[in-house]
């Protein structure tokens, strides 16, 4: 079933609403809550969750006779629904970041009411997953992000079936994120970061889609899933494992390197060209041996810009 999470009116246009899928057997609370599009330009997550909702609805409709959805799943594919329309990260009317509006309120500004409605719908779920991307200039490997995790969350993160798990402490500064509000509740909370903003990266989306279906099989939400043997164990990385390369010169950065590849120390991963002269002015190499977890995709480079990140295996 698809319902409107929150209907809003606008001064000079028709009202709009945030779609919310509730799929599977009726229960007071969902087993899994999946959220994307808190930032309106992060389309990978929106695409993954809308496809996942369609898939689970098809399971419900009996189109996959081997599969059975035995617990309730709640999916909000695009929280910042207006931002998606206008291709903006923030809420278009007041440029506010919805992921800085939690826990929200029923009486505040629109973005606070949105935050409140999303939190109310998701906070009692056993597993809560919020999907983001890096910026439009930078691509990141599909990864699980843990913030000040419990042991149970660490274990579940491995079952999410992505190549990399990044662990961070829960920031005492950003207390107005959805993650921070989720953490107050029983249950487990995860952020997935998938690729870059502003585009659909089909490889990444398909990988995460399959990972979500397998995950729902493993936790007993979706019965009948054929669990593939993972070709690679997920790697856990802490903050200290990250080695970044910054631009020493301005120019045009070009690379055919793919995120998710293991690289050698000193391996050439891209080139900075003189933007008008066309000569190579710098070879960009891996600072250490490890996994290429992020790389710049916007070619125009200023001195000091982040070019890439390699994470060393612990
Ligand atoms: Zn985001």
* Backbone CA Rg: 20 Å
Residue runs with pLDDT of under 50 for 5 or more positions: none
The total count of helices amounts to 6
Average the pLDDT over all residues and give the rounded result. 94
Topology-level CATH name of the largest domain = Aminopeptidase
Give the ligands present: zinc ion
Shape: globular
Strand order of the largest sheet: 1-2-5-3-6-10-8-9-12
- Text of the CATH class of the largest domain: Alpha Beta
Number of strands: 20
- The topology string of helices and strands comes to EEEHEEHHEEEHEHEHEEEEEEEEEE
The tally of domains stands at 2
Folded structure, characterized:
This protein has two domains: about 1-225, 3-Layer(aba) Sandwich (Aminopeptidase), CATH 3.40.630.10; about 240-310, RNA polymerase II/Efflux pump adaptor protein, barrel-sandwich hybrid domain (OB fold (Dihydrolipoamide Acetyltransferase, E2P)), CATH 2.40.50. Helices cover about 20% and strands about 30% of the residues. The protein has six helices and 20 strands. The protein has helices at about 45-60, 80-85, 110-120, 150-160, 180-185, 200-220, and strands at about 1-10, 15-25, 30-35, 70, 75, 125-130, 140, 145, 165-170, 190-195, 220-225, 235, 240-245, 250-255, 260-265, 270-275, 280-285, 290-295, 300, 305-310. It has a nine-stranded mixed sheet with strand order 1-2-5-3-6-10-8-9-12, with helices on both faces. Strands 7, 13, 15, 18 and 20 form a five-stranded antiparallel sheet that branches. A four-stranded antiparallel sheet has the order 17-16-14-19, with no helix packed on it. Strand 16 and strand 17 form a beta hairpin. Helix 1 packs across helix 6. The chain is globular and about 60 Å long. The site of zinc ion has 4 residues, from loops.
């Amino acid at each position: 079933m698809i319902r409107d999470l929150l209907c809003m009116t606008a001064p000079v246009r028709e009202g709009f609403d945030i779609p919310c899928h509730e799929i599977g057997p009726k229960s007071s609370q969902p087993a899994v809550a999946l959220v994307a599009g808190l930032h309106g330009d992060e389309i990978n997550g929106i695409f993954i969750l809308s496809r996942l909702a369609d898939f689970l609805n098809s399971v419900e409709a009996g189109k996959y006779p081997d599969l059975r959805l035995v617990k309730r799943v709640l999916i909000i594919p695009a929280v910042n629904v207006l931002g998606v329309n206008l291709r903006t990260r923030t809420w278009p009317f007041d440029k506010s970041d919805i992921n800085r509006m939690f826990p929200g309120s029923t009486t505040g500004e629109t973005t606070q009411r949105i935050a409140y409605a999303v939190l109310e719908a998701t906070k009692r779920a056993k597993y809560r997953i919020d999907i983001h991307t890096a910026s439009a200039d930078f691509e990141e490997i599909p990864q699980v992000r843990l913030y000040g995790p419990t042991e149970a969350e660490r274990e579940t993160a491995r079952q999410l079936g992505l190549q990399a798990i990044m662990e961070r402490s829960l920031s005492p500064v950003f207390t107005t994120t959805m993650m921070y509000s989720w953490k107050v509740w029983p249950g487990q909370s995860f952020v997935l970061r998938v690729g870059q903003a502003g585009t659909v990266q089909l490889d990444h989306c398909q990988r995460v889609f399959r990972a979500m279906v397998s995950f729902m099989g493993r936790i007993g939400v979706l019965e009948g899933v054929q669990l593939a043997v993972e070709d690679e164990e997920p790697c856990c990385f802490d903050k200290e494992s990250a080695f970044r390369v910054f631009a020493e010169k301005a120019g045009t950065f070009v690379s055919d390197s793919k995120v998710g590849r293991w690289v050698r120390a000193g391996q050439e991963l891209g080139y900075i060209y003189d933007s008008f002269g066309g000569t190579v002015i710098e070879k960009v190499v891996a600072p250490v041996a490890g996994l290429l977890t992020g790389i710049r995709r916007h070619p125009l480079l200023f001195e000091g810009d982040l070019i890439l990140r390699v994470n060393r295996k612990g």
